[in-house]
Amino acid sequence: MINREVLLEVKNLNVTFGKGKNRYQAISDVSFNIYKGETFGLVGESGSGKTTIGRAIMRINEVTGGEILFKGKPISGKISKDWDREITQKIQMIFQDPMASLNERAKVDYIISEGLVNTKKYKNEADRLEKVRNALLEVGLLPEFASRFPHEFSGGQRQRIGIARALVMEPEFVIADEPISALDVSIRAQVLNLLSNLQKQNDLTYLFIAHDLSIVRFITDRTAVIYKGEIVELADTEKIFSNPIHPYTRALISAVPEPNPYKERAKTIEIYDPKLHDYMKNPPSFVEIEEGHFVLANEEEIALYRKRTTIGV
Amino acid sequence: MVDSNGKSRILSIQNIIIKFKLRGQVLTAIRDISLDLYKGESLAIVGESGSGKSVLVKSIMGLLDKNGFIDQGEILYKDYDLAKFSTEKDWLKIRGKEIAMVTQDPMTSLNPLKTVGKQIEECVVLHQGLKGKSAYDQTLKLLTDVGIHDVEKRYKQYPHEFSGGMRQRIVIAIAIACNPKILICDEPTTALDVTIQAQILQLLKNLQEKYGLTTIYITHDLGVVAKVADRIAVMYAGEIIEVGKTHEVFFDGKHPYTWALLSSLPQLGAKGEELYSIKGTPPNLFKEIKGDAFAPRNPFALNIDFVERPPFFKVTDTHFAKTWLLHSDAPKVEPPLSLQEFFEEGRRYAHD
C-alpha cells in the first residue's frame, strides 16, 4: 500500500455554496488519496455531496478550503496556464445522463473532437479524424457513426459516445459520475465491462461515483462512504461490505435490495439516526481503525468499534 | 371468476394486442399477452425499457397515448371489458375507484400549487363521499397511515416542502384515498435513494395487507422484485416470456432471457472478470417478429426459434415459460454456470 503511487490527493477539502445567510457547506473537511491504476468508489445518497467532490476535482466547483493535488502538484486555486492545459487533458469526466450530456445539435465527430480542438491536441485534420475513429472503435462503435447526430443512438450507445469523448483526450484519470444509473439492466453490464477493459488497456485510474452499492462492490477497489458532505468510512471495498463499522454504512448496506427473495424477506433493515452520536462534547475525527480502514468517530465510539472489530461481530 | 386452483381472479387480460400509429407506421407494442391477476396477490412485471410493461398497465387504466389502440383482446374486470371502453365517462367508473396508480416520479405527479392535504382530501371527497370535518379527519388518518408525522401541520404544506420520499408517501396516500381494489405501482422507487426505497417498499407492503389490496409492480430492479412480489411476469419485446411464483422464476427460471437478466446482475459477477452481458439490442417493434423475439440475442437458440413462435410450456401449475427448450424434443440445455450456483443457493434457502 505504501509503495503505491498516489495520483490524486484531496486534502481537507471544503466546498461552500452561497454567501452570508444562504451559505451552505456542501463538503466539509474531506480527505482521501487515489492510487494510480485503482478504481476508487464514492458512495452516498442524493445530496450527500459526492458529485460536488467530483466537480471540485474537475474545477467546475470552486474549492473554498483545503487543496487538491494531482501527481503531487496542486490543481485547485490559482495555477499556471500550462499546468491548467495539461490537467484539462489528463482529467476527464463521464456523465450520468447520456441523453442530457451530448450536444443535440452537433455531430458525433464534433462532440468527440471538441476537447482536441480546444487544446489543439492534433497535428492536422487527418490526425484528428484518425483519433476520433480510434476512440469510436475503442468503445465498440463503428467509425461511420461520426457523421451522425446523438438522437440516432440508444442510451447505451450514447453513453459509449460520452466515454469516447473522454478517451480521445488520452486521460490518466477519469471521473465517472453515475455512468450507468440511467441505463437499462442489460446495457449496464455492457458498459461496466467496457469501462473495466478500457482501464486495463489504457492504464486508467477511475473515481467512480455511484449510489448503487451492488455496482460499487463489483467494480471498485476501495470505497469511501459519504454522508452529508463528510466521509464517514473508507476502506477496501470488500472490507466495507464484510465489516461495515459506521452505523450509516451499515444502514446503507442493509437497504440495498438483494436479488434473492428468501434473503431479502428475512433481512432487517437498519435505519441510521444521526442523533445517536454525541458529538457536542466529544467531536469525531477520521481514524484508522485497522489497516487501511478509516472511520469517522469520537474516542468513545472508536473504543466500541475496536472491540467489535477484534471479536469480529 | 374462480380459477382451477381455487384462487379468485380479480383481473383477466386475454390475448391482448396493442399497437401505436407513429409517423405513418404501425408499431406493435404488446404482442398477444394473456395474464391473470389474483385477488390479494402482488405481481411484479419485469422488463427493460421498451418491453411494453408500462403500456400494458396503462391500457388497464385507459391511459394509452392518443395514437395507441387495443387491436385485439379483452381485459376483464368485474362485469366490464376494459378493452371496449372508449369514453372518459366509462373510465371514470374504474380509474381511482377500482384501480389506482402510483407513478415513478413524485416530483411531477403532485400539483405544486395546492397543499398536499387538499390534494388528498379531493380524492376522499370524490371517492369516499365524505364532506367537511369527516373528510378532513379521513385525510389526516391517511397521512398517518403512510407514515407521516405531525399531520395537522403537514396537511397545510405544499409539495416543495417535502423530500422525495415524503412526496412519494403523499402520492401513495392519494392512491389509497380512492379505496381502490387494485394498486399499480409503476417504478415506485426508481427516483428515490436506497434507504428511502426500502422504507417505501415496506410501506406499500404494509398497506397492501391493511387495505386488502391487489398490487402490480412494474420494475426493472430484481432486488425490488425479490422483496415485494408473490409472482413475476417477465416481459420481452411486448410479450410475457415467463411467469411464475417469485422463487420459481428466480431459482428455476427456464427462459434464456430470464437467465440473461439474472446473470447480468453485478451481484452474480466475480470481481475482475467480465460481467455477463446480453449481446445486441432488442428487436424493432415496427417490423413483424418471427419466432422467438429473443432468438437473435440468445446463445441457446434452436433453429425453430427463428421460425415459429414458442407457446407457453408448463413447468408447474403456476410456472410457465415461452421457450422451445422446454419442448420434449429439445436438446437438454443447462443454464450458464454462474447461474447454476445461484439456483443452487436459492434451493438451499428454500429447504431451510
From TrEMBL, chain A:
One Pfam family matching this protein: ABC_tran
- Keyword ATP-binding: yes or no? yes
Which InterPro entries does UniProt cross-reference here? AAA+_ATPase (IPR003593), ABC_transp_ATP-bind (IPR050319), ABC_transporter-like_ATP-bd (IPR003439), ABC_transporter-like_CS (IPR017871), Oligopep_ABC_C (IPR013563), P-loop_NTPase (IPR027417)
Q: Which UniProt keywords apply?
A: ATP-binding, Nucleotide-binding, Transport
GO MF, any single term: ATP binding
Q: Name one GO biological process term.
A: peptide transport
Q: Which domain of life is it from?
A: Bacteria
Q: Which residues form the ABC transporter domain?
A: 10-253
Q: Note the SMART domains from the entry.
A: AAA
Coiled-coil stretches, from where to where? none
**Stated family:** Belongs to the ABC transporter superfamily.
Q: Which PANTHER family match?
A: D,D-DIPEPTIDE TRANSPORT ATP-BINDING PROTEIN DDPF-RELATED (PTHR43776:SF7), TRANSPORT ATP-BINDING PROTEIN (PTHR43776)
- Return the protein name: Oligopeptide transport system ATP-binding protein
Q: Which organism is it from?
A: Ureibacillus chungkukjangi
User: Highest lineage ranks of the organism?
Assistant: Bacteria, Bacillati, Bacillota, Bacilli, Bacillales
Automatic annotation (TrEMBL), chain B:
**Gene3D superfamilies registered for this protein in UniProt:** P-loop containing nucleotide triphosphate hydrolases
Keyword list, A-Z: ATP-binding, Cell membrane, Membrane, Nucleotide-binding, Transport
Listed transmembrane segments: none
Q: List the membrane topology term(s).
A: Peripheral membrane protein
Please state the span of the N-terminal signal peptide per the UniProt entry: none
MF annotations from Gene Ontology: ATP binding; ATP hydrolysis activity
Q: Which GO terms describe its cellular component?
A: plasma membrane
A Pfam match is oligo_HPY
Q: Which GO terms describe its biological process?
A: peptide transport
> Ranges for the ABC transporter domain?
11-262
Q: Tell me where it resides.
A: Cell membrane
- Note the superkingdom of the native organism: Bacteria
The record's family statement is: Belongs to the ABC transporter superfamily.
Q: What is this protein called?
A: Oligopeptide transport system ATP-binding protein
What species does this protein belong to? Ureibacillus chungkukjangi
Cite the source lineage.
Answer: Bacteria, Bacillati, Bacillota, Bacilli, Bacillales
